[in-house]
Predict the structure.
Amino acid sequence: MTSDQFDDFPVSSIGSADAKDLYQSFLEFEDLLAKVPKKLLGNNPSLAEYDLFREVHTARTAKGALYRRKIDANEALGRLWLSRIRQQAQLLSASTELVQFDGLSADELTDFARLSAEPETLFSLQRLLLDRGIVLIYEPSIPGMKLDGAVFCLDDGRPVIGLSLRYPRYDIFWFTLMHELAHIVIHRELLTEPILEDLDAEPDGLTEEQADRLACESLISRSDWRSASVKYSPTEANLFDFARRVGIHPAIVAGRLQRESARKNMFATILNEVNVRRMLFGHE
């Protein structure tokens, strides 16, 4: 990364670009870059480095991203992945006349979750969210990266969700998406800083617990789950009947049952029937 690349560095509304800030960000950037294998920088390493530097500078001047992750997660890979999400979102926002985001309610989140009943809706989710002023970006997980999703707002206040599809299971996709949407519903004021999600990690603090709770409630309400016969008699017949009754895909019910039990192979066929990575990226 050469010094003249700083000349046109865009000043974010949440930070300054004075010499001291830029120098401190550059030192942090160099430390992160040293941990990123060169092959992961893609066909245009200079642009990837520049985007990574911008991400580091934005995060540092905004006092850092909020991470839900295990302590062994590779922050450098997460920052690189996030820089790709931000670049795509900014390009879309600059090149397309987008609908203004006017908020999202918990009731609307519940309605949105019903789209999960048909896997083919995967192909229309980006358009449906864009019609609400929310940008959804699918960016493949980087090998070794332990992040499932991210959510933040651009400088104009438009929410952006990034999904890595680290796991190809349909139930995990929908829980991750609903979790990020839940942050938009209840934590929009926090999203000037990215929230990065490793959903294998336990919720760390009230913000994550609230998003988990709303995501679960949107997919399956507490009252429905409390009376669900499939919890006490986990047969395929009961599972499909419950899924039809509440209007979601059977894999989401199977995933909930698996998470709440010690039987990790429960309903494995149903859980692996839909491969989201294959559907959206065209490969496994």
User: Anything to note?
Assistant: Residues 75-95 form the longest helix (21 residues). Residues 1-16, 69-73 have pLDDT under 50 and may be disordered. The two ends are 34 Å apart (CA to CA).
